[in-house]
Structures are given as C-alpha cells and as structure tokens.
Amino acid sequence: MSAIDELCSELAKLPGIGRKTATRLTYFLLKQPPDEVVRLAAAIRSVSERIRPCSVCGNLGETDPCLICEDPRRDKELLCVVEEASDIGAIERTGEYRGLYHVLGGHLSPLDGIGPEDLRIEGLRARVANGCEVREVILATNPSMEGEVTATYVRGVLENAGVQVTRIALGLPVGGDLEYADGVTIAQALAARREMPR
Amino acid sequence: MAGPSSLRGRQSFARVDFGQRPGEVPARVCFHMALVTTAAVVLHAFKYSESSKIVRLATEDVGVQSAVAKGAMRPKSKFGARLQVLSGGVAEMYMKPNRDLHTLAAFDVTRQRSELAGDVERYVTATALAELILRLAPAEPNPTVYHYLVAMLDDLVAVDRVNLEPFGLAALWGAVGILGFAPALDGCACDGRRLPDGAAKFSIADGGFLCQTCAATSTSATTLQKQDRQTLEKLVSGNIDDIAPIPPRHAAAHRRLIVRFAECHMNEDLELKALSMWERMWSDT
Ligand SMILES: [Zn+2]
Ligand SMILES: [Zn+2]
Fold it and tell me: Cα–Cα distances in Å, from A70 out to A57, A75, A168, B278?
C-alpha cells in the first residue's frame, strides 16, 4: 500500500469521514508546509501517549487522578454522572457546577449488546458506598430513551446507598421558540414544570 | 397506535424525477423515488456520519425498512427528539426501489412510550421484541407484524410488574409465531403424528415437539415435563392469565428455549443481543 493510500484509509476510519473526504484531506495535507504536517502528527501522537482515563472518575486527562478529582476546591458531596468524558467539558463550560463527576462510558443499549457490565457502574457503586462524602448523585445522562433507561438503572443501583439521587431537568432550550419545539420536548417540559419562585 | 387513516399508505411520486418532462412515462422506474407515508415504530436508531441517524422502522405498509434521517443529530433538526427507540408515529420516507437505505423526510410521533424507560426490565423486554422483528421479519409488507408489535408495546407499558416475565415470554413466542416460525405443539414437528399428553421431547432444530419415533433419532431434543409443556403451550397461545407462577429454574429454561429457538430460525448468523440480555437479566434481579 502506498503512503497516500495508507493515510487515506486511516483517515477514513474517523467518525463522519468517508473515503472521499479522506482523500481530500490527504491531498490537502500534501500541499501544506512539511513542518505543519509534522506538528499535526506530533499532536496526534502526544494525545495518544499522554491522555488517559482517570481511574477515579473516568474523565480524560494527563494526570491520574484527573485535575477535577484532585482539585481541593471541588464540592465532594456532589457527584454528577455522565455518559461520556466529553459531557464533562460541556458542563464545565457553564461554570455553574462545582462538584465531582463519574463517567459511565456510554449508555445501556440492549440492541447494541451494551449492558450494565459494560458501563463503569461498579466504580460508581464503590464511590458512593457508605462512609463516603457523597451526599447527592445527579444523573446527567442524555435525554434519550437509552439515557433515560440508564438513569433508571443507576437509580436502582444506588437505592440503598443512602444518597439523594436527582435527575437533570428535561425541557425546552433557552432562547428557543415554543411554536417550533417538537411535541415530545414540550410534553417533557410540561411534566417537569415547577412552581415559580416569588 | 396507527396514524390517521387518511395518511396511511399514501404514496406519491416525489419531485425527484431525473430528466423527465411532466406527464412523461418514466423510461426506467429505478430512477424514481416514491414518497411513502406510513405508520411506523422505531426499532433501532444509531448515529450515522457526523450529524445524521439511521433508523430501522417497522412500518404498517412497507415492512421493516431502514432510512437515513439527515441532520437528525443537529440541535435544530426538524426531527428533534422524535427518533427515539420504540416511539410510534407517522413516517414519511422517500423510497428508492431495490435499495436498502431510504431517506426519512419526516417522523411525527403519536406515541413515545417513554414510560418504558422508567423500568429497566420492561425496556429490555421491549427491545428484545423489537430485535426479533428486526431480525426475523421478511422485507415484504406485513401489517400483521406491525399491529402485533404496537399492541405488545402498549400492553408492555401497562402489564403488572408480577406478570412481566411471563408476559415477555408470551410476547416473544407470539412474535415468533406471527413471523412464521411457530413451534409444532400438537403434532410431531417431523411427521405430524399426534402427540400423547404428558412429557415430550422438544427439538429446537426441528421446530417443535417430536413423537417417540422421531425423538429416538434426534440428537438435540430435550425433554419437557408435563407442566413445562403446558406452560409452553399457554405462552405460545399468548394465554398468560391462567399460567401458574413459573418457578425461577423453570422460567430460566423457558427463557433459554425461546432465545435458542429464535437464534436457530434466523437466516443470518447474527447474535440476538437484546434477546440474550433479556434472558440474563432476570437471573440478575
Ligand atoms: Zn477524575
Ligand atoms: Zn415424528
């Protein structure tokens, strides 16, 4: 296999990149100054060598435990359960949450053969075991059927753990327009309505 | 629940006519896409490329079909939260003849079944049923299969927790039957000879109970005691009201039986993942 074909087939393995795009990217790279291409290769190599999952929470970072787990200013009584490490970034960007995280590594999906044993649920059970500091577990799995059933499963696992289990609210997007929202979302928003504070 | 009857099965030719003048008869029908509107249930949905989803639909009018919902993962997609597994609604699809993957134009949810996600066992049972239909249903239109699926999903939401396991067994056997693989219960699966009451040998490969003569030469048949045979007959007929509670060990054997039976009668050599999760789940709880 030629070097060009090799790069094409590696790029084509990436999500959202088909054979055509892979070929286009390969020829784009060939037209770039060599030092830029080398920089890209080095960045890919350093990500693969330096980034690893945190053995405590499953977050991805250069240290183990990760910077969030090690941060003494974080509220250790709050634990937010998410499906993927990338969800942590989304929550962190809000700057509104000061607790810790737990990454499940996916959601329950029987049709894809993903069951509880494929998720980091035992690790969660251990973190919330009696005698720990956690007071509330926030289930922040995706608002999809699979995310919902995963939240249901985790709630069951934590039933006798002596912690409060909460679910993030599901409903209308801020800045959205009721008229254009789909019926399913409006129904969820109505079901999750709350009293307006005075 | 089916969509409005005026919409059901409505077909029209799409605007996608390649090089054809109005009124002209198409020279090659394969260049045509038909817009089909049909009631449907989402059996499976997964990400496809960066922003789209592929959905597998059980439809009332055009059988089990796959369609790509372009841009479904984008925050402002017209599909919004609609394409959830087990949701029922009215699908509009551009269908190309002789193609496996069509294009979903719209999906209007009429029944979301989010209640199923509030109970893991109910949910897994529902996905096992969806999987059976996904893997065993023929490509041809089969409204009976669609209506059976809808009825079972709706009953599954409502069934009493204590009856959930026998209900699941009956629903799965019922699906196997409706898909054309019903096991032989009254007569021998090999030669049709009538079977006496009581314990009998059941052969998954032969598709049912065997008479003594056939059982003698079968290497894979297992004995079902009288009680288990009666339970199986009731499960296959969907009659779970007068089933005595199935003791756990027997229930496990019944679960194993339906899973092996379904696996054996599948055309492709694919693992039935949801079904095997359903089988294991009850021993965990
Ligand atoms: Zn960590
Ligand atoms: Zn016989």
Answer: 11, 11, 25, 40
For B227-244, write each residue's pLDDT tens digit.
999 999 999 988 777 777
Token reading at A174: 């801020």
> Measured between alpha carbons, how far is B71 from B77 in angstroms, rounded to an integer?
6
Length reported for chain A: 198
Q: Tell me the domains of chain B and their CATH numbers.
A: 10-112 (2.40.50.140), 117-284 (1.20.1440.120)
The Cα-based distances of A175 to A164, A180, A192, A193, B263 in angstroms read 31, 12, 18, 17, 50
Average pLDDT over residues B182-188: 93
Q: What is the rounded average pLDDT of the residues B144-171?
A: 94
What are the structure tokens assigned to B226, written together? 């009288």
B208/B215 Cα distance (integer angstroms): 11
User: Which of B43, B49, B86 shows the shortest C-beta gap to A16?
Assistant: B49
Alpha carbon B229 to its chain centroid, in Å, reads 25
CB contact under 8 A, A152 and B130: no
Give the residue carrying structure tokens 């999952």.
A53
> What's the B58 CA to ligand 2 centre distance in angstroms?
37
Q: Is B196 an interface residue toward A (CB < 8 Å)?
A: no
Quote the ipTM score: 0.84
Dihedrals φ, ψ of B172, to 5°?
A: -70, -40
Q: B71-106, pLDDT tens digit by residue?
A: 888 877 788 777 899 999 999 999 988 888 999 999
Chain A contact present for B109, CB below 8 A: yes
Rounded Cα distance, A140 and A57, in Å: 14
Interface check for B161 against chain A (CB to CB < 8 A): the answer is: no
Amino acid B8: pLDDT: 42
Report the DSSP pairing between strands A52-53 and B10-13. unpaired
Give all domains of chain A, ordered by start, each with its CATH number.
Answer: 74-167 (3.40.1360.10), 170-198 (no CATH)
